[in-house]
From TrEMBL, chains A, B:
The lineage of its organism: Bacteria, Pseudomonadati, Pseudomonadota, Alphaproteobacteria, Sphingomonadales. SUPFAM superfamilies: Class II aaRS and biotin synthetases (SSF55681). GO terms for molecular function: histidine-tRNA ligase activity. One of its GO terms (cellular component) is cytoplasm. This is tRNA synthetase class II. One of its GO terms (biological process) is histidyl-tRNA aminoacylation. Residues 13-308 form the Class II Histidinyl-tRNA synthetase (HisRS)-like catalytic core domain. It holds the Pfam family tRNA-synt_His. L-histidine binds at residues 84-86, 114, 128, 132.
């Protein structure tokens, strides 16, 4: 056999998860799925691969350029490895589940990949978990989704969860109403607001939008500053909705508002939010209201990307109590102890030793006894 | 937005799993992982994608031709979407976990893909679950692995599990010893044995191997017929090993022996086995002893491909009891009922109705009451 000198290398941005880290991922995934399930979300499983054209047609504003693409020898069409599951769940809602009653609650968990990582996160593959409430983008829908997202993160072991709200169509709403802007200026204003550049904003002709830069921060103060903006009357329903959602989750999460932040979600409608937790670098997830690409059905959902949480907890992840089973052990006793939560490690030869195999206990007769003297 | 007329189509051999089927997959995956974990197998998570050359160098006899391949814009090297996780776990054992104590017990669960399905199974993506016992290919190791595989299938809901044993290096062992064959004849004999073609076997010069065709069937009789073959002395340790393993799992599974069957596993050494269950078309999994490609370390393991079981059980898969929560419901009562196993479905508007949303019960005060009159 010829040996490739780079045989042991993985491509940049791809990695093996070893037991501690894999156990953390598995525990987090179960906890999040269990919370979503308990709130009535049914899991669906779309495939890893789809036609690129099909994926693109439902992404409306996003592109498939970030996806691994390749020609299908069967159909001779271009396939893409998914970089997002939300789009696939939207497709399922619009096709296989088009006849299911609305609101339709769906959830998912799976790996996604992209051809390039970024400065903040070089990973090119990660786990995406999420829930979509299809057929509703009301305040009640958004309140439920935010609450489920927080509960899911807590169940996964995140502490100090915070939610940063935004109003993705804020500039359009103001520009179509009390603070008119032409199309070119509108785009420039959005850009300067994203950059939080007050000077640039004035220069771009967006002076009237200056208060938005200051209407960001702790939720209660920020929402009042937003309400005080000239022409904020057109925002009344959004502001009332934000307050209702905040009221519902108050005390369970730190709440902030950054009304003109766009998070790069081209398909969000009136509400967006980003999720953070203590000790985790970067966002753990995001969500909001949107229209499903293609069917244009209203929906609300969130996606979690728990890699940051895994990094934060993996060193302390508990792999469970291990019980060594000597040669000729009592198999019924071993089965009983497994059913009580022990992980058994059976000796295969006289050479196997409890401590070396990570066992704190050994089976002695029908009892687990400590191997530490 | 332009609409692709094939937007709703998935590529051949790829499918969405809707709630019933996705729930069956999730339940089966958890059950199998829990059994492997309880027997001391630690989960690892290799990436979906690797360098093609790296994957190929560890596959020793298998090829990457069945894999989706594409050029990595980062490294400009060819990547492959995995078609098998066993090879990746072997790599992990030989690299990241090379220093871990042996025997090393690892397990995994994940999606694999291949560019072409086959007549028996057109699927191009499926779930693979399995366990690898690294550092041992003894009878004790094989006995443990067969037992864990059976227990995992039972926990997943399979009934009438059967195990078909084989001896992958049987022809080589006989041909190197009492029933000599030159290399060309050896390959022809293997081929005719696979085809169970007695005439072809004689024509190929393998008359002495005829009894192997008849040494297949119910385990106890077949193993005696194998033992009676001229020159079977070289098989003594294998036959004793088979009997010991059969003794260990007798009563838990139907056992058969097909000593010259190869299952297409080029990398198996002395023992191979295939797993079946009642009501499931085709094999549910396979396993055996082998040498890890590259490091040449002894190992024993099994892989399950539960799609057939999912098909068999999905119509009856239980999605759980759903409890409708009317507007203004008691949130603490709802949380308590969720913790007791209920799945709650909250009304978002007056239009939402319990029965239409699949709820058998509704929350009335703090109690769940039936909505069926």
């Amino acid at each position: 056999m010829t040996t490739d000198p780079t045989r042991d290398l993985l491509p940049e941005g791809l990695e093996d998860r070893l037991p501690q880290s894999a156990a953390a991922v598995a525990r987090i995934q179960r906890a999040v799925l269990d919370v979503m399930r308990s709130h009535g979300y049914d899991r669906v499983r779309p495939p890893l691969i789809e036609f690129e054209a099909s994926m693109a047609s439902r992404m409306d504003g996003l592109s498939t350029r970030q996806m691994f693409r390749f020609v299908d020898p069967k159909s001779l069409r271009t396939l893409a490895l998914r970089s997002d599951i939300t789009v696939q769940v939207g497709r399922i809602a619009a096709t296989g589940l088009s006849g299911a009653a609305r609101p339709l609650r769906l959830c998912y968990a799976g790996q996604v990949a992209r051809i390039a990582g970024d400065m903040l996160d070089p990973r090119r593959e990660e786990l995406q978990l999420g829930a979509e409430l299809v057929g509703a983008d009301s305040v009640a829908a958004a309140g439920e989704v935010v609450e489920v997202a927080i509960e899911a993160l807590e169940a996964a072991g995140a502490t100090g969860v915070s939610v940063d709200f935004t109003l993705p169509d804020l500039v359009d709403t103001l520009a179509d109403g009390p603070l008119p802007l032409d199309a070119a200026t509108r785009e420039a204003v959005r850009r300067e607001l994203d950059a939080k550049d007050a000077g640039g904003l004035v220069e771009a002709g967006g002076e009237a939008y200056l208060p938005l830069i200051h209407a960001a921060g702790a939720f209660d103060e920020a929402v009042e500053r937003l309400d005080a903006i000239d022409g904020a009357g057109v925002l009344d329903s959004r502001i009332a909705g934000l307050k209702e959602i905040a009221e519902r989750v108050r005390g369970r999460a730190r709440l902030t508002l950054d009304p003109s932040e766009r998070h790069g979600f081209a398909y969000q409608s009136w509400l967006g939010f980003t999720l953070y937790a203590d000790g985790v670098r970067g966002a753990l997830g995001r969500g909001g209201t949107y229209r499903i690409g293609g069917s244009d059905e209203a929906a609300t959902g969130f996606s979690l990307y728990p890699e940051g949480l895994v990094e934060a907890v993996k060193a302390d992840e508990d792999l469970g109590r291990r019980l060594f089973l000597p040669l000729g052990h009592d198999r019924e006793a071993a089965a009983r102890l497994r059913s009580e939560g022990w992980r058994t490690v059976a000796a295969l030869s006289e050479a196997d030793e409890a401590a070396e195999l990570g066992c704190s206990h050994r089976l002695d007769g029908a009892e687990a006894i400590s191997v530490r003297s």
